[in-house]
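User: Before I run my own analysis I want an independent prediction to cross-check against. Here's the chain; please return only the C-alpha cells and, at the end, one sentence I can use as a sanity check.
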Amino acid sequence: MGITISIAGKGGVGKTTISALLVRELCKKNKPVLAIDADPNFNLGDRLGLKVSNTIGSLREEIMKTKDKLPSGVSKQDIIEYQVRMALQEGDAFDLLTMGRQEGPGCYCFINSVLRTFVDALASKYDYIVIDNEAGLEHLSRRTTVKSDILFVICDQSKVSIEAAGRIGRLADEMGIKVGRKVLIVNRTESETTPQMLSLAGYNFDSVHTVRSDSALKAVSDRGDSLAAIANITPAVEDVGDILAKELVALLR
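Assistant: C-alpha cells:
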C-alpha cells in the first residue's frame, strides 16, 4: 500500500478544504491518488469538482434490502465488490470513493468486513490515499484501513477547537490505530499561535503547523465550489503545500 494520509477535526475548522488541497498537491506528483470521503456529511467531491452519484452507504443499504433475493450462483462478496467499483469515481488526476451515511438497523458485520477488505485492496493500487474522516475516526477502525502514515488533526485558534484536537489525538491512541506521525494543523490563523495556546490540547503531537487565513480560499469554500481554480500562490495553498512536503520528508526519514 502507498502512503495513507488521514484528516480529522472538529466540524467547521476547514477539514474538508484541507483534505482537498492535499489531494490537489499530491496530484502534482503524477502518481495515482485515491481520495476517500469518510464523513457521513460528505462534500469532498464538491471541493474536488466531482458530483457524487453513488456512495458506499447507499449501496450497502440496497444490498441489505435485497440480500434474500440475490440470484443463485452469485456470492454476496462478488456483488459488494462490484458495487464498490461502481461507487468509485474518476477525476482528472485522482479517484474518489465516498463512504456516505452510517448503517441503519440490522447486522452489517459481513458487509462491513467485505467492504473493509476490498477497500484496503483497492487502496493498495495507489501511491497516495487521502481519507477525509469524521471527527470520531470511526471509519479508520471499521470501514477502511487501520493504518495511517500521517494523521493530520485540524483545528482553529479557539480553545474549544484546540481541546477537541487533543481528544482526537488521544482517541487514535485508544483505538489502537497505527499512525506513523500525528500532526496538528492550526487552520485560518490570524495571529501568532503561542505554546500556551497549544498546551490546551493536552496532547503531544509529532509536529505542529499553521495555515494562514485566506480570503480567496474562504470565498470559494463558502460557495461550496471546487478548489480546482484556486491559484497556487494564495497563502493557504502555499502553506498546505509546504506542510505536506515537510511531513513526507519526516515520514520517510
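Sanity check: The two ends are 18 Å apart (CA to CA).
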